[in-house]
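Usage example:
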Amino acid sequence: MAAILPAAERVLKNRVGWYAAAVALICLLLVAQALPAVVNGETVTGSFPWIPSLQVELSFYGDGLSVMFGLIVSGIGILIMSYSNEYMSKREDLSRYYRYLLMFMGSMLGMVFSSNAIQLFVFWELTSITSFMLIGYWRNRPMSVYGATKSLLVTAGGGIFMLAGFLLLGIITGTFDIVTILQNGSMIALIKGHELFLPALVLIIIGAAAKSAQGPFYIWLPNAMEAPTPVSAFLHSATMVKAGIYLVARIHPIFSGTEAWFVLVGGLGIITMLAAGFLAFRQTDIKGILAYSTISQLAYMMAMYGYTSYQYPGIGVTAATFHLLNHATFKACLFLVAGIVAHETATRDITKMGGLRKELPATFIIGAIAALSMAGVPPLNGFLSKEMFYESSLEMGHILGGPFEYLIPAAAVLGGAFTFAYSIRFIDGIFLGKRRSEHLPKHMHEPTPVMLFPPALLAALVILIGIFPSAAVHYIIEPAASGILLEDVQLHVSLWHGFTAALLMTIITFIAGAALYARYGAIAAWQDRVSARYPAWSFNSLYDRIVNGASGKSTAFAKVMQPGPLSPYLIAMLLIFLLLSAVPVIMIAGTLIPTELNLEVPMYEAVLLGLIILASLGTAVLRKYLHAIIAVSAVGYLVSLVFIYLQAPDLAITQLLVETLATIIFLLVIIKVPQTFREKITRSVLARDLLISSAVSITVLILLLNASQGIVSPFESLSYYFIENSVPLAGGHNMVNVILVDFRGYDTLGEIVVLCLAGLGVYNLLKSRSDSK
Amino acid sequence: MTTLIAKTITKACVPIIILFSISLLLAGHNYPGGGFIGGVMFTSAISLLYIVFGLRYMDSLYRYQWEKWFAVGLLISTLTGIGAMAFRYSFLRSTYLTVSLPLLGDIKLLSTTFFDIGVYLVVTGSLLFVFKTMGEDE
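Running the assembly step on the lines above writes:
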């Protein structure tokens, strides 16, 4: 099954949104196919060798966790793509839009089914890149570009840290296969005892936190709201931002059960939960509110996955996994509702809205269900997982003891109260209260079923999972939690299980949340005042300072490193050459000029060499560009003659053709410039150039003289290998070409990629120059 | 600036050069040649056309989109690599098959030929793309 996923990724060339939705449906069916096996506790695998010498394989692995993510990604993908049919204007570049979306979905699926760490990293960065393209979809809006750049810098940069962490894991265990590590208890014990344990953990958590907008890395998510709303619903609430959570869940068995894990993951989660919940108050953009709420909800999951101790490593795992599923349903629904509202009112500012329940009754009901679920109101699914969150917080506090016995549950309740307040704000600000007609269009109407159905379906799921949790728990949560904890998990979730401490906490949450909501405006105003007074006190301004500073620094750096005229580059190159070759030559060669020299030169060679020397002198002496170019080409052609004479036809042809092209380009260029050299060369410059060039030529001379005397003998010649193997292994008699396309095929592939990029680079340079004119 | 003689000779030579470049490409595995050299030779032929007849005139006949050539070439080369993976070999692993055909005798079918074709297209496409962009810049 997993083997078909890359194939599904390739089906990207599409025109219509329904087609994209169909692709998502196929993905969903493919993933669902693995469901029965996973429910029975089995796993699905498939693999291809990729870079066997580095033990990197393209291997896929599906367990409960992967399948749950696969279902969320493709299931919500279907809804998003069908919703987009109506949301995106027909005048937009739809093909690009859906291509990006499908590419994103493919990389996301590839990531959750990766069993190899390196492969996971590749797909991980692919999701960052596709997200970048989607956020910057409206590329002529400066804010989109800013948001896109920010998200790419933060998430892809975090990915690099993660890669470093994976490499450390690889060093410890000797394998990059996560599944091998997971299935091997002794390896996990080895990792936990290893001195590189903490660095590896910290690096990987940085990657996960950057992706899931945790801690100081949250700053990219609010700016990512510049993306089209369906994209935000898909990437920035339901799927991509959960990649970090996925990673934390995936590596949970390897790292959890240690204090470092609790402090890093749990601590980060709790702090982010409180900070983001609090900061949500001052948002006026409806998508901004949702962005901060997403950050805080993701932080819930982080905190729960972080709850761990030596005796009980996975206290919050089931709760976190359940909340993950629930969050995907209600948050995607909220975003889609926000999209409808913004579409109808042509604004996203919540202060200009109000009273929309009359015009948009169905949207109001759907939005209210989702928001109440987020607030944790029974009997919706958010209530269930929030209860579990409180239970696990109590348990964790109890295990830690001391002041934590109260602090952790209190933090959980406070986070819940913030959530309650901003959820109510979302409903109240948009739908309730008075209609402010001066800001809103006169006639608003419900959207068409195409746009209404996806959020309605999600809202229905919210209710269904809330009232009948057992099906979702049995088929999705239990396998997923088993996949994380590596043991069979049985769960009993129900709406009512007596008057427990968790229920008491919920009631406190509602009261505190309502109290907070009463002071909502005052708190927001206070936050605004603080941020206006200390504008430099935020991670955002830190980011801006770093990024803007970097561009200034790089300009200064470039002025030194790339001054423009050709001669400094040549001088630098030749000096480095001298350093790298003259020094070893003097060290290795005993005598500078060997005693036994073969000075017999055949007549042809002598004539050719004489001509080459003559032509090279000509390039240096001739005062007109045209003449100098002809002299340079003459050198080139004569060298190719030498190649023919030395029986290297491949080199000769290449040299001949490249020389021809170079001459043509030169001739094309000199039409535009004056025909004679203008600049006067001063005596000191001349002396410097003469010194450098003579030093270089003497070095080369000595090198060549010694080369025939066995200076290279410490190294065995590679050519014997190719001579022996080119026919049996690659079936070709032309060794040069066999090396190019077969033995060193990777190099050639890299080179042609560079060639393509160079072509595009030239195009962009010339294009931007002619645009700026 | 170009004379009738240059134009006539170009017209006669360009098809021959192109054929020669293709034969270089296909011969590459056993004799001098290969994707890179063939591509450069093809580029020379087309640039000869551009120089002798001028960019405007060539464009008025047909607007070539060389960037598509290198995109396709890169795709072919990469797919050759991935194709090996589909047969559960490592990326870019090559293979060959000897086939006996009537009249032509034994012929080796090489997977690397596809790779070479990709290289050829990339070289041609990117060089000509650069040429044309520079030429249009005026």
